[in-house]
Amino acid sequence: xxxYALLFLAGFAGSFHCIGMCGGFACALGADPRGATATSVRxxxxxxxxLTTYCFLGVLAGGLGQAIYTSPGTRSxxxxxxxxxxxxxxxxxxxxxxxxxxxxxxxxxxxxxxWHRVSSSFGGSTLVISLRTxxxxxxxxxxxAFGVLNGFLPCPLVYAMVAQAASTxxxxxxxxxxxxxxxxxxxxMLAVGGVGRLLAPHWRQRGVRLAGSFILxxxxxxxxxxxxxxxxxxxxxxxxxxx
Amino acid sequence: xxxAPDALCRHCLLPVGRRCFTRSVNGESCQFCCYGCCIAHQVxxxxxDASEAAWFLxxxxxxxxxxxxxxxxxxxxxxxxxxxxxxxxxxxxxxxLWGLATPAVLILGEPFLRETWSQARRGRxxxxxxxxxxxxxxxxxxxxxxFQRGGHLYFDTASMVLMLxxxxxxxxxxxxxxxxxxxxxxxxxxxxxxxVVEGVNEHRRPVREVCAGMVIRVKPGERIPIDGLIxxxxxxxxxxxxxxxxxxxxxxxxxxxxxxxxxxxxxxLIRSSGAGGESRWAQICRSVRDxxxxxxxxxxxxxxxxxxxVPIVLALAGMTMVYWMQRLPLDHAMLTALSVLVVAxxxxxxxxxxxxxxxxxxxxxxxGCLVRSPGALEALACARLIAFDKTGTLTLGRPQLVDIASxxxxxxxxxxxxxxxxxxxxxxxxRAIALAARARGLDPIATTDVQIVPGRGLRGIAHGKLVxxxxxxxxxxxxxxxxxxxxxxxxxxxxxxxxxxxxxWSENSGPGRARAALSFDDTALPEARVTxxxxxGLGLRVMLLTGDHAGAAARLAAAVGVDDWQAxxxxxxxxxxxxxxxxxxxxxxxxxxxxxxxxxLAWADVGIAVGSATDLAREAADLVLPADSLWLLPWxxxxxRAVRSTILANLAWAFGYNLIALSCAVxxxxxxxxxxxxxxxxxxxxxxxxxxxxxxxxxxxxSAPPLPAAAQxxxxxxxxxxxxxxxxxxxxxxx
Lengths: 243, 735
Prior knowledge:
The structure holds two protein chains of two kinds.
Chain A: H1 2-21, H2 23-29, H3 36-69, H4 89-109, H5 114-119, H6 122-135, H7 141-150, H8 156-168, H9 171-195, H10 201-227, H11 232-242
Helix pairs in contact in A: 1-2, 1-9, 1-10, 2-9, 3-7, 3-8, 3-9, 4-8, 4-10, 6-7, 8-9, 8-10
Chain B: E1 21-25, E2 28-32, H1 35-45, H2 52-78, H3 90-121, H4 127-147, H5 155-179, H6 184-187, E3 193-198, E4 201-206, E5 215-218, E6 228-232, E7 235-238, H7 240-243, E8 249-251, E9 256-257, E10 262-263, E11 268-272, H8 280-293, H9 297-325, H10 330-343, H11 347-366, E12 370-371, H12 376-382, E13 385-388, H13 391-394, E14 395-406, H14 411-422, H15 428-439, E15 448-453, E16 457-462, E17 465-470, H16 472-477, H17 484-495, E18 499-505, E19 513-524, H18 528-537, E20 541-545, H19 550-560, E21 565-566, H20 571-585, E22 588-592, H21 598-603, E23 606-610, E24 623-625, H22 633-666, H23 672-691, H24 706-715, H25 718-733
Parallel strand pairs in B: 13-20, 13-22, 20-21, 22-23, 23-24
Antiparallel strand pairs in B: 1-2, 3-4, 3-5, 5-11, 6-9, 6-11, 7-8, 7-10, 12-24, 14-19, 15-16, 16-17, 17-18, 18-19
Helix pairs in contact in B: 1-2, 1-5, 2-3, 2-5, 3-4, 3-5, 4-5, 4-10, 5-23, 9-10, 9-11, 10-22, 10-23, 11-22, 11-23, 12-22, 14-15, 22-23
């Protein structure tokens, strides 16, 4: 459970990054003229849409990891594969790749920007242009649709989580990984949407660094899971409980 | 036939073809070549809350919300998350899946269903029919399974197939719109509006309704819609689209402006000098539209194959199903057949040629080169011989003094007298004489009473003596003697292709005589040699096929490095020569000025005219380069080859991919969802491969240092990037 709590915290810290990127969308979505309840529904729908996309990506990544690397018969039971002592070579490889990816993305939060250019190419820009038309549309379908598409916008945080989900090599664990992360982003995003006020830039900057640290820590742990010898698993496990 | 088979898609500017798709956007009826373009266009240009664009995106978003949920639950079911103790929730999950899938299939499948239906009524089967059949079969089977409490569910297949195809078409259309970016200004002439000023009133009118004499207001940043003269304001114009001139040109009151150029920085009032539909821009627009409208040979073959494809695939899917039904349960057999249906969707094949082609045409257009016939690029790419039709194409068109043969007088005296006389002439040779005199530091001798003898030359009075310059005929007319040594030298000069001018003056006592003969030659273009070297570097054989004297041809050939020439060819022998070359070299390209060498250009496989974009209506060229742009030719050839190889790569890819995927599907090795992803990916790859053409470097002028050109090429995508960043920033700032 501690694992998902950490993911939730990563999501929460990461939502400072979200406020920078997607917070604008949440603000632009604005208030519903029919009152506070309708406004809340609007923003909950938007965030549900976003969460759905994350869930989908998580379960897809987890399922993919499962399909590729879990040898038949050694299926880990939902949600406890993290730091389980019986890691086979496939899972280790996956963990190393996911860990490295996460570290790379965490570094991008600390100002290593090269990666960003790749992520914001063709598909991203097309989506952004498309999304604008959805912002001002009344009704409940539009915010939902908007949230769903928003979830696909290139975002290193989401990619990191998807990598993490893939490394769990289990569809349900993958789902839970991204759900925990997505729920973590809820409070800040809802607050931004409801209150309609951005945090001071330097706070946002700190939040982004914090998010980066979380991702970095997760990446290092995931990487460690892949490269540590079997016996070290226990030590790491202890470290984990202290954390 | 459909309503307008020759119309162009409003979004990607490719011909709409037979799968035409009509929708109204902002109250205007628009035609699209596909569903993807339809969505993308509405997303791009739909305005206001009522726009259908938002509706499309809502549909896409809600559709993906539903299908992602379906996928999510299905994946959990497949991965065994509901095994063991959780088994009893399975029926509920199945009902939930059905509840999600029903709206998903309806929302996402409706456009495909509509297209299938409208085509089926015309008796045609399109690839949408395959998608519709496949996904609805999966849905119907799974619905039965839910309510009969048995069998596997394939709701995920049904919805994801639709989802992936919708997404694929949308992205594809977005890519194609990028391809048409360079073409858009050329094709805008027919849809552009002009702000007509009448007294104090101003109203917007279509350009074709603008007549000569009307006053048009053009704001900074707008495209000038008509040819005319500036009556008020000053500004810079960017004429790149029309003339290929890449520098901004300053214009003030009284200056003429060209339709299609961009008014950069100042408001202008322009008096139209002709009807809106008659401008060069409108003519270019029509000819480009014609070139785009007709499909090239490769594409016609591909289209015919695609037409035969759908029924074959349906039959194949049927056979696959029957075959596997004898070996596997019904649902597995159905799934295999479904993969066959989905994977055989020949979208990529239909996209292979037109996109690369229009990208190529657009890029050439950006540098002022016009492609006027659809096969021109392909033929140029295949050509192995380039013949220059006229020596004039390779020369400056400005004669220079080459030689002076005098008889008993000094060269300086000859030149000084001649310069004084020719000062009063507008003839092309007069400039050459003035230049030569200035080069020697001579003062022209003042000449009075100068008369022009039409077709012969000039005569005037200097120092009280009659001076005359011109042809031998003029000397005879004056009764002046041509000394034999002089006339012999003159004959030699003429036979080697030079223009010859005699000059003579009268003696104090008695009649005058010719004193000197001067020969003039048109010099080769400074960049001609580099251009020809570059063409040869591209593996082309370069020839000179000209009607001029052998002497002129030989000298020019030597000067520019052409190793093969045939001179004195009349149109008929020229055609015979071209035919001979064609049997030896395959396709033959011919370069001329496009004005009076029409037959030669028309007879070649590709006729290339240099510098006559003004006279589009009368020449027969397939490809028109802007004036003084012979140096662009190697780049154009390179670009044509790039377009052709892209098309071939696209076709090979699309067909190869389809065949391999199809065989996998027939043997039951491909899941339908994977098949749909593979297919959507295939057309996306074709689009991306075609967009690679954009990355190729622009032309570099031989005289220009290579650095600025490289810097320009590198900085080219920058404005676009900035634009995107700005859009992102705008979106963020919209709060």
